[in-house]
Amino acid sequence: MLDTGPGYAIKRITVRPGGVLSLQRHRHRAEVWTMVAGVAEVTLGDDIFSAGPGECVQVARFKTHRVANRGAEDVVFIEVQTGATLDENDIERLADDYGRL
Question: What is the CATH number of domain 3-86?
């Protein structure tokens, strides 16, 4: 966690080559991702697209989302969460390669 305050939290997230974050959604928070390194494969709802350094992805509440790293270098992004509830209990995992369903 980089910073937190009333109604916001900021994280730096690294996805190693071959890594895939869980497909998830949130009831209480929205997120904005600013990509800073590598090229991510982003799933946002039914869309799948690439996002690289300098690009931003907006994730609305209830929207399914995930990041995968299909490249050879780390994917790094800054995640800004906003909403009334900003804790891990607000994660609804729909698919997960690490058995956290």
Answer: 2.60.120.10
